[in-house]
Design a protein that fits this description.
The complex is a heterodimer.
Chain A (H helix, E strand, L loop, with lengths): L1 H10 L10 H8 L7 H9 L2 H8 L18 H11 L27 E7 L9 E7 L1 H10 L22 E9 L8 E2 L4 E10 L2 H17 L1 H10 L11 H18 L3 H25 L1 H32 L1 E10 L3 E2 L17 E12 L2 E12 L10 E17 L3 E14 L8 E4 L7 E4 L3 E14 L4 E10 L9 E11 L12
Antiparallel strand pairs in A: 1-2, 1-16, 2-3, 3-5, 4-7, 5-6, 6-8, 8-9, 9-10, 10-11, 11-14, 12-13, 14-15, 15-16
Chain B lengths: L1 E4 L2 E4 L6 E7 L6 E2 L2 E7 L5 E6 L2 E2 L5 E5 L7 E10 L10 E6 L5 E6 L6 E10 L1
Parallel strand pairs in B: 2-12
Antiparallel strand pairs in B: 1-2, 3-8, 3-10, 4-9, 5-6, 5-9, 7-8, 9-12, 10-11
The chains are: A alpha+beta, B mainly beta.
Amino acid sequence: MRFFFLLFFAAGAFGADLSPFNIAIGRILTPETGLTVDDEIDTLLNQRQAMVASFAPNVKNAGAQPPAQQLPELARIADRYRRLRNDTQTGASSSSAGSTSLVLNPYLADILGISLESGAILKTVSGNTINLQIKPAGLFCATKFGDATRALPGVPDNAACLEFWKRVGITAAFDKSRSNAPSQLVALQDDFSEFRVRFDLLAPQLKKARQALLAKMEQQGAAATTIGCLFSELSGCEKPNPQLITWTERTKTALKSAAAKPEAVRKAELEKTFGTALDQLQKLFETEPDLKAHMAPLILPFGKSYAESNLLALKVDELGRTSFSVEYSLNRPDVAKADLANGIVTKGQRPPDLSTARAIYARNYQPFVFTANGEASWFNETLPGMNGAFRSWQVSAMGTFLLKEIPNMGKTTLSFGGLIGDLHQQPLGFDYTVPLVNDPTKSVAINLTGPVRAFNARLEFPTANKSVTIPISFTYSNRTDLQKEADVRGSIGITVRFDSFFPTATPAR
Amino acid sequence: MTRTKFRTYDSDKSDYPATLTASTSADELPTLASVVFRIQDVNTGTVTSKTLKFVDNGDGTATLTLAAAPDSPCNLAFAVQVRFPANNPVDTPMKLVFKGANGSSVTDKIFPESMPIVFANYVVHYR
């Protein structure tokens, strides 16, 4: 008794770090459904490895290598982990074309998706576009094994299926019944207009990070069991420690007493009680001979390993929320309604195809997602009158806020995006002509090169448990591709992800 | 397999082979490391170790199997090490079902905590 009395007064000097236990303490205040305050106190006191790891950085000169003072702070880890929470991924992609969003979303359907979008953003001529998204490896794996979860990237090794090829996504766009707006080009009915191939660059890093995390967890498993059984009354340890058993009993009694205090002071009392108990625990490990013997070989290395493994876990989460992919797209322009530019392109022909190389980055900062695109485009053919093959560059960024979740539907998202770019030469590669207003029989060439600026606001409504989303967007742009006049436009679309239509193996939950 | 107190269980020969099956109602099963068992013979006091892995069942669950009953009465102490992804809701635990070959079973829940990696310490008395 005297020993614990002395410890109580000595304890204040340490200042225990309670951050690893904030949630557990919160559960004592408000137990989970079906659990009692006693259960929650037992759960807190069962976190023996976290308790000893929480004081490891405070221990000085215990002979551990590297010095304990260099250990990462658990509080910072807990804070980073907390900031990663409150979420799910953005889920459904609405973004197979630029017709409702300025910035391409990095998340394609894992198996199959389709979207129909109406209303252009940077095209002069509005119309309807059907976009088909497919991940061929995802489709193959889902159908071969009759399990849609096999289509997901990063599945465990024993469920792996074409993991490399799952990084490849393909999108094809088809123009559907465009209007007869004043343009020198016209789309044919159901005409193929764009083909995109995307490749995910970060998947191998995520896999490596997961492997490193698992290796680290395996490495500390033996030490964790040893620490756990030091506290056990009747355990598989050679020498359970009576001081720790007594500490556990006393701490449990003290926490019960704190939990019974009036509501206004209950939280503060619990924190104070547990903080004092952790300080006492540290003191025990520093002074009690049997426990002190564990300090250098077991507790301090474990404290370091515990912090490192938690940092690796954060890295896995952060990589899982970061996407970086590269994309090649082939755009096929519409058909000329009449001879263009003195017959360089004759009626019924198409101007040269356009290739675009694009980098797509996204980072999920729950509940905010940042997405950025950078792209450059060039003509696949240089015709007379064209100023080389390079056509344009664009940089765009979008911030998406995940709004409140609608039960059984998903989260509504609100996005704001901006785009800047420059048309290095005429949109079609050669001079573009328009009829004179005062004499429609004559035409004049206009210069359409120059900067492009646009701002877009976009609201996406989920339905059917995120399988179907409806994006609506409004865009201001300083120009469109064939007109140098500012414009404000509205667009609407619907995107269906067929991933959830594929069967999944029934989990035994 | 019967629960005697918090994360402490009694077992006998009819429980083996016994299984520990982890499952979740969250989107993703948490990462589970191999489990190191410390086995103390209650007659001799000798302590031995054994490491067993959770095997992914491919259906959102993973199972660890204790294939054979220990040779003599003993205490098994072990720590289950779980990494909860950040998108695992705080109020959605990982369920751990201890199931004996005789059909008995006990269930425990491991909740996400303030740190990504959570340890749950168990003792099984085999008599």
